Amino acid sequence: MEGYHSFGTPTGIEFLYDRETYEVVRRVVETLHWSGIAPVDLRDDEQDKCVKVIEINPRFWGSILGSLTAGVNFPYLVCLVGLRAKLPAMVYPCQRFVGGKAALSMLMLPWMRHQYAGVAFQHTGLRFIIQDPLPELWAECMHWYQRSTRTRPPLA
């Protein structure tokens, strides 16, 4: 789902299953003998009619709460891998997840609801903010501080 700015992070994500995408990621993981966590950024190349890997980052990602709402708890799975325990079969529903600020807009601003049609409250970041508001408050304070201390060019 589109972000607030061009090239910005999306306001939401949609969980889908696409066999071609799955096969591309499976081949990359097998070729690299990858054993850890990593989001794989992909793009559909409309000209070549195929999925292409853009990058792989060995870290947890910003939309990990979306994965949790879809039923996949990646930190827990990483712990199981570290303990060499058996991993449960992963089955997840195709659904949408909307992050905190966008979810608030979705609830408060009627004209925004069409963009997020079909997204239930439990599939938003709001439920996590309500359960534990401190991380979001801390992030907002840090953004405010960074904006307020940013060096601005002198006015001409």
Descriptive notes:
With 156 residues, the protein is of the alpha+beta class. It contains six helices and four strands. It has helices spanning 19-32, 64-69, 74-82, 100-108, 126-131, 134-149, and strands at residues 12-14, 40-45, 50-56, 96-98. Strand 2 and strand 3 form a beta hairpin. The longest helix is centred in the last third of the chain and has 16 residues, at 134-149.
Topology overview:
Layout: E1 12-14, H1 19-32, E2 40-45, E3 50-56, H2 64-69, H3 74-82, E4 96-98, H4 100-108, H5 126-131, H6 134-149
Antiparallel strand pairs: 1-4, 2-3
What's the oligomerization state? single chain
The whole-angstrom Rg is 19 Å
Q: First CA to last CA: what distance?
A: 38 Å
Shape category: globular
Mind summarizing the main beta sheet?
A: 2 strands, antiparallel
Helix content: 25-40%
Strand order of the largest sheet: 1-4
